[in-house]
Amino acid sequence: MRYVDEFRDANLARTLSTQIAAVAEPGRHYKVMEVCGGHTHTIYKHGIEDHLPETIELVHGPGCPVCVIPMGRVDDGISIARRPGVIFTCFGDMMRVPGGDGSLLDAKAQGADVRFVYSPLDALKVARLNPEREVVFYAIGFETTAPSTALTLMRAKAEGLTNFSVMCNHVTIVPPLKALLESPDLRLDAFIGPGHVSTVIGCRPYEFIPADYGQPVVVAGFEPLDLLQAVYMIMLQLAEGRSEIENQYGRVVPWEGNLRALEVLQEVFELRPYFEWRGLGFISQSALKLSDAYRDFDAELRFDVPGVRVADPKACQCGEVLKGVIKPWECKVFGTACTPETPIGTCMVSSEGACAAYYNFGRFARSTARAGS
Amino acid sequence: MCLGIPGQVVEIMDEAAHIAKVDVGGVRRNVNIGLLAGTSDAVDLGDWVLIHVGFALSKIDEEEAASTIKFLEGLGEAYEDELEQLKGSDIA
Lengths: 373, 92
Hints:
The complex is a heterodimer of chains A (373) and B (92). With 373 residues, chain A is an alpha/beta fold. Chain A folds into 3 domains: 10-64 and 175-208 and 219-240, HypD, alpha/beta domain 1 (Rossmann fold, 3-Layer(aba) Sandwich), CATH 3.40.50.11750; 71-173 and 257-302, Rossmann fold, CATH 3.40.50.11740; 318-372, no CATH class. In chain A, 38% of the residues lie in helices and 17% in strands. Chain A contains 14 helices and 13 strands. In chain A, helix 6 (146-159) packs across helix 11 (259-268). Chain A is globular, with a radius of gyration of 21 Å. In chain B, 27% of the residues lie in helices and 36% in strands. Chain B has a 5-stranded antiparallel beta sheet. In chain B, a hairpin with a 4-residue loop joins strand 1 (5-14) and strand 2 (19-24). Chain B is globular and about 35 Å long. The two termini of chain B are 20 Å apart. The mean pLDDT of chain B is 92. The interface between A and B is large, with 48 and 39 residues.
């Protein structure tokens, strides 16, 4: 085990690992879902499962914003990007996500003006510098990212920019968790709550999980030690028959969230009646669109988009991976037809995707563990 | 895009537009601090903030910043990519 270099406090990591094993009930199998793609990345990169008893299974959830974008929404984006005069901007992670007919990167290679930006404010700057062109920002992300888009739109409105619009794909974290808890495919014991999302929404929105489903939620940071500590806090709750929300990441996450961020979300966005999630299907009130006050900036109203629903490729099992029903390596095309270089599914595209994280780190740790055992 | 990266506020560039210059491992770029304005987390020169897609999401203390930077450096490529993208950013 690699304690010394990777944990903020190696002794504490060792102690936690021992304590987790001590409170685990013999013969009981535990399924703990980490919701956030950043957590999944840490778990594979640092081999967190090596520090846990075999009876504790970490299940990867739907918290990677790139991974949950359905193919039809990629195609809709590409249809806007291909229009003459349009400069289409998006985060770098989004460029290689396959739609029904190629990715934004393919569209760029075929002549569309697709540019990746670090921030929505960079997209706004492109609009200022190109007043004769239509500049569209393809917005993705959970509540962590949505306030950035909101403030950017408020700025665009204040400046009276008429050539800037947003294709909004922002999603919210609570509805897919509800959907998973209602799913007959999956029986979970507890959740590791997302760190950055909770910085914005705080801890209260998870109250339904202990209240209605009797399961603990521990909001956690991203370092290996944070995750070990979160697992210990969960195991302690389960051992003592408690189910409540605890905040392991209090050094960054305020219990109430960021009130200013929640305010700007309220002003700029409203809930969509429903939204399609890759692999999870349609989930009601699970995504954001621009509010009436910002409708002039809505790319879906400014441009005709096909709005076609494209079924996921048959071979791809991203849906099951996103729901935590199967592990990445159990997918039929994992590592053969589907690799980070030529992804079929979204989970292989982003570095926070469970498949890419496992492909890059986990498989080596697993083979090393096997070779060593 | 999902990383939160620590940066230290080195200059307030535009108070009305909430733009501040931050130093992230020697790279100096502008970010928006509007999500912290008017809160108990309002930022000042020398403060450390966690930055996500060009916006300061929360204020953190120096120890947390140092520890997070160490962790991110350990991530390798994902952090290097993020820094490369930050270098290409030109928020005004």
